[in-house]
Write a structure and sequence with these properties.
The protein is α/β, with parallel strands linked by helices and 394 residues long. It is built from 15 helices and 7 strands. Helix 1 runs antiparallel to helix 6, helix 4 runs antiparallel to helix 5 and helix 10 packs across helix 12.
């Protein structure tokens, strides 16, 4: 939504939307000349302008609502696609993706319908702009011809009124259309401001209760599930947003993203977090999670030089290495985002056993869309309110 705002506003930035307002003084001068030369003839461009204003005001609310709907539906579609990109393709059943694709299709349908409405309004606006001058010309000729036949106006005056009336009507209709032209930029600005204000208003405040809760002994295993008001990703954001930044041990909380990046350099240094004393523990964790079987295939074993992407390890190996790195050194809490990504079914079973084995000592929070992983972690607590949980109320 924020990214689309500049594109919606570029028409205003180049001055095209405001051009009609700059011409407004000339339309007043033209109307004054028509009234001086033809008297009642001035009613034709004024009537065209009045009808245009009424027409534009009647479609403006519908256009505004469609623009807002188009922006919201587009944002929902992009968020859904982003969430789908973090879903493991080799462990997720097609049945579990049905609701996701249904929401994406619905969002795209809403966006298309809203776009159709805005396009219809734009076409109506363009038609009225093009036909306004013609209608005004016909009206001026009709009223002016009667005045000429009655001897109240010369043919030269009628010609001048015809030219001026056409120009005045075009400018007056353009002024009326300015409001519709500016609506996309205005709506984008309002939506962007609302997003920014929401982010500022939800600024996290460190809590002593949170700190004390993280420092308590013992572990636990929690699964994030979608509710009517929150998706698992939103719950994960809520948990991370409530974590304090003033912990005595900054390594107490560790987060493993869906697509982790590793430390460049020796594999063992990466797993042990550059601590020689933790190498034995890292080796043990590596065997538990199944990483040891993959490392044995490398020419230099644990002395292999890694890139940040985890190469020469496979994607699944890099994911396991990130999990081992997170659990090395006895952290207070480990948060796993989409741990099923890049892992096959066998690796998921090993991961389930690994998490259950360490849940007595480490607080583990899992955000996953894998039905297999959920079934293996049946003993895990389902989180309903992450804010209350992180404050120690659940």
């Amino acid at each position: 939504m924020l990214a689309s705002a500049p594109a919606k506003a570029r028409d205003v930035n180049v001055g095209q939307t405001m051009l009609a307002r700059f011409d407004a003084p000339f339309s007043i001068v033209f109307l004054a000349l028509i009234a001086y030369l033809g008297g009642i003839v001035v009613a034709a461009p004024l009537l065209v302008a009045a009808v245009s204003v009424v027409a534009f005001f009647s479609v403006a609310p519908r256009n505004r609502a469609a623009l807002e709907q188009e922006l919201r539906a587009g944002a929902q579609f992009e968020a859904g696609v982003t969430g789908l990109a973090n879903t493991s393709s080799n462990t997720t059943r097609l049945s579990s993706l049905g609701s996701v694709f249904a929401r994406l299709a619905y969002a795209r349908s809403v966006q298309s319908n809203a776009n159709r409405t805005t396009q219809n309004v734009s076409t109506f606006q363009l038609d009225l702009l093009q036909s306004g001058a013609l209608i005004s010309t016909v009206g001026v000729v009709w009223l002016g011809a009667e005045a000429v036949l009655a001897g109240q106006m010369t043919t030269g005056g009628l010609a001048a009124c015809t030219l001026l009336g056409s120009r005045a009507a075009s400018q007056l209709v353009g002024i009326a259309a300015t409001g519709l032209r500016a609506q996309p930029a205005a709506i984008a600005a309002v939506q962007s401001k609302a997003v920014l204000e929401t982010n500022e208003g939800t600024e996290r405040r460190p809590s002593l209760t949170t700190t004390e809760y993280l420092q308590t002994a013992g572990g636990g295993l929690w699964l994030l599930e979608a509710t009517l008001n929150q998706s698992p990703s939103e719950k994960l954001e809520a948990i991370i947003g409530h974590l304090p930044r003033n912990l005595a041990d900054p390594e107490a909380v560790r987060i493993v993203p869906a697509r982790p990046r590793l430390l460049s350099g020796r594999l063992m240094d990466c797993l042990s977090r550059l601590d020689k004393a933790l190498e034995v523990q890292a080796l043990s964790l590596s065997r538990e999670v199944g990483l040891d079987n993959l490392v044995c295939r490398l020419t230099h074993g644990y002395d292999t030089e890694l890139e940040a992407s985890g190469r020469p390890l496979s994607d699944g190996g890099a994911k396991r290495a990130a999990i081992v790195q997170a659990f090395t050194g006895n952290p207070k809490m480990v948060i796993l985002e989409a741990p099923e990504a890049c892992l096959d079914v066998e690796a998921l079973k090993m991961l389930s056993a690994f998490l259950l084995a360490h849940s007595d000592d480490v607080k583990i929070v899992v955000q996953t869309s894998s039905e297999d992983l959920r079934n293996d972690l049946e003993v895990a607590t389902r989180l309903e309110n992450p804010s209350n949980w992180i404050e120690g109320l659940e």
